[in-house]
Each structure stands twice: as C-alpha cells, then as structure tokens.
Amino acid sequence: MTVSYTLKVADSRFGGFSKLLFRWKGSIYKLLYKEFIVFVVLYTMLSLLYRCLLTEEQKRLYTKVAQYCNRSTDLIPLSFVLGFYVTLIVNRWWAQYTSIPLPDQLMCVISSNVHGKDERGRILRRTLIRYANLSAVLILRSCSSPGTVVSLGKPCMPAADSPQRGSAAPSVALSLCPATGFMTQDELKKFESLYSDFNKYWIPCVWFTNLAAQARRDGRIRDDVALRLLMDELNLYRAKCSMLFHYDWISIPLVYTQVVTIAVYSFFAFCLIGRQFLEPLEPGQEGDLDMYVPLPTLLQFFFYAGWLKVAEQIINPFGEDDDDFETNKLIDRNLQVSLLSVDDMYQNLPPAVKDKYWNESIAQPPYTVATAAETLKPSFLGSTFDMRVCEDTEQSQLAEASPSMPRIQTPLLSRFFTAASPAISIKNFGRGSRGHPHLRRPRADGGFPSPYPNRSEDPELVARIEEEEKEEMDDEESQISKPTTPAGLPRVTQPPVVSETQELPLIQVKSPSSSSLGADQTESWEP
C-alpha cells in the first residue's frame, strides 16, 4: 500500500517534482476531489442565487454580509493552527513506524548463542524466534484494521472467540489457529486458558524467557553473559510492542483535532459567502473584476483542505489508505527472514579465505567507466585544513608569555564589588600596587601620582600605606638573613594585622568609566 517514488527523485533535474503531479495513487487529488467538488458546487449555487434571483435591495444586504464574512477570515489563525497540527501528526506517524518490532537483532543473537545442530537445538531456536514473531502479530492485529491482514487470504476466526482487546479487536482479521503456523494447538489452548482483562501480547515474551532459561540449564546457552544478551534483546523487542500498543491507545487529544477541523471548515464557510463577486453599492463606484471562476479561492481551498486531508490520512497508519503501513508484508517478511536465520543459516558459513586485497596496504576497489573519475577527486580533509599562513604578521608571529605582562581587567566589574572583602587589607592593597610597576609612573617629585588626579588624597592614609610597605620590605630582608629553624623550615614573621575595631578613613574611588555616568557618581571602598 505504500507509494514509493524514491527512484523518481534520485537526481535533481528540470521538472523533477512536476512529473509526480500526474500520479493518481496516493495523490492529493484522490484524497480531496470529493470535498473539492462539494465546495465548487456550493460556490456556484450562491453565485447564481446572487446574480439571478436576488433583488437590488437584497443584493445590497448580501453585499454587506459578504464584506463582513471576508473580513472575518482574517481573524482565523488557520496557518498557525493547521501547520502545528500537521507537524505533530507527521512526527507521530514516523515514530509509530520506528516502533514496529523487527526481529533482526534478536534472530542474530539466537543464532549465535543457542547451540546445537541436533533436532533439539533446531526446535529451541525456531521456537524462540516464533514466540517473538507471535508477540508482534498479536500487537499488529490489535491496532490494524481487518482488511490489512485479510488480503493475504489468511484464515479468520470469529470476533467472539478472540480474547484480544484493541482498536481492531471487534473484527479480528488474522487467525491464531494452528493452520497459520504462528501457534501450535497446545499453545493456543494455553493462551486461551490464561484470562486477562488486558491485551495479552506479552504472553509469548514470557514463554520466550522461560524457554531461554531452560536452554541455559541444559547447556544450550553456554554462559550467563549470552543469556543476559538474549534477554536484553528480547526486552528491546517487547518494548517496541508495548510502545506500538500505547500509540494505538493514546491518541492525539480529540479537542485538538476538533479545533483544527472547525477552523478549516469555518474558514471556507466564510469564503463561500465573502469571496463572491459583488456589485458596487453606489451607482458610480467602480467594482471588482467579475471572475466567474475564483481561482485564488480554489487554490486556497486546495492547499488548506489538502493539508487537513494529509493529517487525516496518516494519523492512523495501520488502516487501508494508500500510504498506510503494509502490515501483511511486515509479518511475512519477519517470519521468513527470522526462521531462515536461526535454522538454515546456523553454522552454515562459507569458507574463510584470504581476500583480494590481502597483500595490498591500501585497498582500492575497481570502478566502472562511468564512475572512474570519482577516484581522481581528493578526499575531504577539512574546510581549513589546507589554509595558508595568514599574511598578517601579528597573526603569524609567536609571543612568549611573561609574568610581568599586564593583565587587563574589566573596569565595569568594579561597580558590583562595593562590599569590602575580608581578604583585603591595607597591606594587601599596597602589595598589589607594588606588584604592577607599569601602573605606577613616578612624578618629578619622586612620588607616585594618584590614578585620579581630580581627587584629593588623604595624606594620613598615604603615609600609613607607605609605612606598611616599608615594614613589609624590612620583614622580607630579615627573613632572608635569619637562619632556618631546626626542622629545616624558614622562620616566618607574622605581618601586622589591623584591628577589626580600628576605624580607617573611607577612600573615594572614581570608576574609569564614570565619565559616561556623570562626574559626581563615585564609588566607596572601605578596607
């Protein structure tokens, strides 16, 4: 049922997509032609009614109503509501496809870890993979419409005999009788004897785990690591079955679907009246061009209504639409491939020999004449891999890092640090200023100028800072001259500590960027 056109658009060429417009199966014409015909018929009836049957007074009244309806179409956010809804539907549609359980990984694990070429080994491998396929069949028959499985001529069973419950449970299409090969007679009896109010797709998975544990006890599975790998793959397979069941159970909220549907239908209901040809109200007033076929309105209906029909088609991809999933093909493919993998291909390997490129350091496969030119193209190594050295000398010249190199700090950060830090003292302040000699330029009188020349300095505070700097330098010289302690460590002299209760004058600091804020705006720093 899936319409595939991948080969038609493999190469971009002139009119590539245009050729797809003439296909009928799976096309928008097939989905929309009935609604389109109804819209055109209603529009034609209203046009004939206005042109032929209404009086002049009635035409004036109809003109006012039509103008009101035409203005009302701008109040409906159709593009936003419909676009978001279709995006949600498409994402959900693809997520449902990726949730379909495929036995490919599980069959490889079974074929490599369940050993035995005898009849018992074959039975174990085939039964394990058959249980996995049975679980997938149970979940697919619970969420697919009946016609998707009946088409292959598989025998049916009455709905009353089916213990399953799901969206398609009232008319179950695929039989679970032993003739189909998915269950034996004993398994069917065991399955029907287990009563549950919920879907029982998980029962074959439990049978799988018990049979795998028995195979481990019998030595068919040789270690616990292989058993754990088998259980992990089964859990992934069962999780996909569960996710598919929940996608069928939990739909997109009905209120959202109703809102989108009402928005589209009400929009075009206003268009039926508001997009009609109208005669001018005043005798001398110039009227619009009389287009018997409202082409822009018809195209607008085609786009918006077609958008809604796309969402309607793929909201449940397990139906019988042209682009719905081919459930029959999936079931047949999974059963055939999985049985072939665990039975006929078990330990059935071709001989391992030296390959063609055994003695070649670089393998170079042959090309056809049409693709031989591809080998001459260089490999991509990176967009800037072969970039030449920049001509700018500052970009290419290396510089050595130096401890005396000044570090520029952002002056704006000082605005936020108004509170005094416990680690800041007068001595640290002096040490920090002495550690950056490039920030202190000597004056003619031998002193150092203030970084803010317009600000008067406190002579008492300056004298205290110079005194502490001198004491610190004397302490460093005395530590160098003093001998070490008996433990071999230098004797450390405690620096004088400023008392917490001692009041220090407030230093008025002007921010370097304060010129942009105003001359009177300053910051306070309290040591």
TrEMBL record:
Residues 455-467 have a biased composition (Basic and acidic residues). GO terms for cellular component: chloride channel complex; plasma membrane. Residues 427-527 are annotated as: Disordered. The gene is Best4. The chain crosses the membrane at residues 36-54, 75-95. Keywords: Cell membrane, Chloride, Chloride channel, Ion channel, Ion transport, Membrane, Transmembrane, Transmembrane helix, Transport. It comes from the Eukaryota. Belongs to the anion channel-forming bestrophin (TC 1.A.46) family. Calcium-sensitive chloride channel subfamily. This is Bestrophin homolog. It is a multi-pass membrane protein. InterPro entries: Bestrophin, Bestrophin-like. Residues 510-527 have a biased composition (Polar residues). Residues 468-478 have a biased composition (Acidic residues). It catalyses: chloride(in) = chloride(out). GO terms for molecular function: chloride channel activity. Forms chloride channels. It is found in: Cell membrane; Membrane.
